[in-house]
């Protein structure tokens, strides 16, 4: 696996995911972090966008997934984001973290989250 990575941190979207009816009706913010592992040497050497993954395109794909579909579980949302990245871009591995800062929990907390790491099929 390459040690190089492209990082998108703190992408915030308003969406309607969750198991509770109020979550599906009212919605809430979700924060997504993504790390894409790939060899960045060709892009660094050529200074050419065509030699890397365009993070604007990754952002748009994540936004479309988070806001365009509904999931009950953060795990399912993270899996969908990871699989779409792996099938849309030439990356070796992806780490996706989905944070839910307004999860319906009784108490004070920063967020509830899941983090998954998936590899592309060789």
From TrEMBL:
NCBIfam families: folB (TIGR00525), folB_dom (TIGR00526). GO terms for biological process: folic acid biosynthetic process; tetrahydrofolate biosynthetic process. Pathway: Cofactor biosynthesis; tetrahydrofolate biosynthesis; 2-amino-4-hydroxy-6-hydroxymethyl-7,8-dihydropteridine diphosphate from 7,8-dihydroneopterin triphosphate: step 3/4. Its EC number is 4.1.2.25. Residues 6-118 form the Dihydroneopterin aldolase/epimerase domain. It catalyses: 7,8-dihydroneopterin = 6-hydroxymethyl-7,8-dihydropterin + glycolaldehyde. One of its GO terms (molecular function) is dihydroneopterin aldolase activity. It holds the Pfam family FolB. InterPro entries: Dihydroneopterin_aldolase (IPR006156), FolB_dom (IPR006157), GTP-CH-I_C/QueF (IPR043133). Belongs to the DHNA family. Gene3D superfamilies: 3.30.1130.10. This is 7,8-dihydroneopterin aldolase. GO terms for cellular component: cytoplasm. Keywords: Folate biosynthesis, Lyase. Catalyzes the conversion of 7,8-dihydroneopterin to 6-hydroxymethyl-7,8-dihydropterin. It comes from Neomoorella stamsii.
């Amino acid at each position: 696996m390459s040690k190089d990575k492209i990082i998108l941190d703190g992408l915030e979207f308003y969406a309607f995911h969750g198991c509770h009816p109020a979550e599906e009706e009212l919605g809430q913010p979700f924060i997504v972090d993504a790390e894409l592992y790939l060899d960045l040497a060709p892009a660094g050497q050529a200074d050419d966008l065509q030699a890397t993954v365009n993070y604007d395109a990754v952002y748009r794909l994540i936004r479309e997934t988070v806001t365009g579909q509904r999931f009950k579980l953060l795990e399912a949302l993270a899996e969908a984001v990871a699989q779409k990245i792996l099938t849309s871009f030439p990356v070796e591995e992806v780490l996706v973290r989905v944070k839910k800062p307004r999860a319906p929990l009784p108490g004070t907390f920063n967020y509830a989250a899941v983090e998954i790491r998936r590899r592309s099929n060789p």
